[in-house]
Automatic annotation (TrEMBL):
Origin: domain of life: Eukaryota
Protein's UniProt name: Osteomodulin
GO CC field: extracellular space; plasma membrane
Domain LRRNT: 66-98, 377-411
Subcellular localization(s) per the UniProt record: Cell membrane; Secreted, Extracellular space, Extracellular matrix
GO biological process: cell adhesion
Region of interest (Disordered), ranges: 700-738
Function: May be implicated in biomineralization processes. Has a function in binding of osteoblasts via the alpha(V)beta(3)-integrin.
Amino acid sequence: MKECVLLVFLTLCSAKPLFRPSHMTLKNMMLKDMEDEGDGDTDPDNSLFPARESVNPFFPFDLFPTCPFGCQCYSRVVHCSDLGLSSVPSNIPFDTRMVDLQNNKIKEIKENDFKGLTSLYALILNNNKLTKIHPKAFLTTKKLRRLYLSHNQLNEIPLNLPKSLAELRIHDNKVKKIQKETFKGMNTLHVLEMSANPLDSNGIEPGAFEGVTVFHIRIAEAKLTSIPKELPSTLLELHLDYNKISTVELEDFKRYKDLQRLGLGNNRITDIENGSLANIPRIREIHLENNKLKKIPSGLQELKYLQILVLMKFGSIGVNTSFRQLKSQDDFKVYCQYENYQWDEDYDEEPDDVYQPEFQLRQNVDYGVPFYQHPLGCASECFCPPNFPSSMYCDNRKLQTIPNIPAHIQQVYLQFNEIEAVNTDSFINATHLKEINLSHNKIKSQKIEHGVFAKLSNLVQLHLQHNNLEEFPFPLPKSLERLLLGYNEISRLQTNAMDGLINLTMLDLCYNHLDDPMLQEKHLAKMEKLMQLNLCNNRLESMPPGLPSSLMYLSLENNSISSIPENYFNELPKLHALRMSHNQLQDIPYNIFNLSNLIELNVGHNKLKQAFYIPRNLEHLYLENNEIENINITAMCPSVDPLYYHHLTYIRVDQNKLKEPISSYIFLCFPHIHSIYYGEQRSTNGQTIQLKTQVLGRLQDDADSEEHDDRRESPEQEGTEENVDPHYYGSREWQETI
């Protein structure tokens, strides 16, 4: 009997107080939520936590009317992380749903940074240097649901946040106070994460959470000395780990009748008053590890839904009356492990038996409570959430080595650590791995054990970007579909480096040291299913030879390419998008882009002096920052066929040397044009000029004109020329003047 009691209570459970999803998982989670029509809170699929299966967008850039330089845009998502930005980009498309600006150097959010982004759903600003957010910065983002401000230098939670917010994460800042007006009117706020802030027990003003229905609050790693008593009564989860709480009083939990998960680990608790835990009758999980308790708290026997109790590393502990009463009940079921403990002989004699470290009791069938089935194995340095049993989260933990990965794990997230080597031993049991994220570490090529990845026959996705790799990793498994190697120092490709990658569809080699000789052996031709190739920000001076005919997306920005061979694209009939901005192109063969599937073409920031033939299906053309003095429409469109109109909808020609607007003939040949962006033009003396346009405003088709009016102008501004962007020509009014 005694042995069974000890096995139940002296345990180290695999549960953790809070699931912190990785950056990639957060994006996947939000993309999944964005697909749910209505975004109602009653929809069980509209979860605040990630789905079991990753929902990764296939391409890192898709077709956008505009995309900020250096960013990647896809599916109404603008991804601008890790670019060293000091401010928010100014040309974010108006219909953007998510903006990712994490890991930059942004110090301030200004009033107009997000103006007009009325469809914005999620904004990620983690890991910047923010000290100030303008009170009106979120005035027009009335659909914003998720805001991430963690790892910045904010002294307060911004006021005037959108009332639509469902999730606010402001972890690791300098917030000392929650003001009474902070969350006023935010009736849909469900998750508040503000750990690692210098918030003490007097920092929460009375009434700060009045009228707010928050379900999840985490204020860990702060300076709390007592349980906050004026948090929302709707709380389901409360995490106060790593504070300075010393006592739990009888009245502390009376307000939180629906609480199901409570984290009080790593405090200084010496006493929990009798009956205080009985005030949370629906509690299922309690964490009390690493405190100074001398006995098991009383009242546990009254908690019929309790499933998990973490009592790890007590100074001394014994079996008291409530211990035995709780054990005698059939409703306390748990799956845990136990660690070494100090036995207190005042309670009972120490048993001589050697206990098994793992065991399982029956489910809570008496009350119909769902049972948290924790996975059999999880590295102690990581977290394996019970509701996502095939994933292991080890990110942002300052790890220097890769922990052993259990056999059942399919996704392992190890990004943002200090890992320098990849050894076979860590993956010896990981036969089911499908995804590995080792980005943002310190891995060098010579520290990757030969064949470590090739043995993972189910691996589909491998992230090694932002490391110190000098050469292409080899060998790799045939199963691999997505390989991300950007932001490394790769300058060498072995002759057979890409052999066997027959299923690879996406390869990212941006921001490396690749030059022309490294690609002359036509390594890339071996990947017959490759659809997307990113070679931006390398040292290329000519077009890479021997690209596979399956290619649909090609990124060559920020190289030194000066010319394109005349028949280069003949072997790339499926090409949908080509990005070659920021190169040294001076001339383009007239008919070079006659590709039936080409939709986006970006040759901005080059040295072009004239336009070229535009293929029929092209929709977005970027010619900004070149040397163009006149745009010859006849060259772009030598003939007009009323049965086969061109599909061009957007042209960008700012920062050229145009002296007059493009001829109105353009709208005969390209009747679908929505806008032409002129911006500023450069004159011969180096100054900038603005063309005098006959028509103001950027216009749309009838189908989206109503949405446009709501997005760009307030009711009192609508129809006034003073508030229309003079840099745009509107296509409809131009057509009327022809």
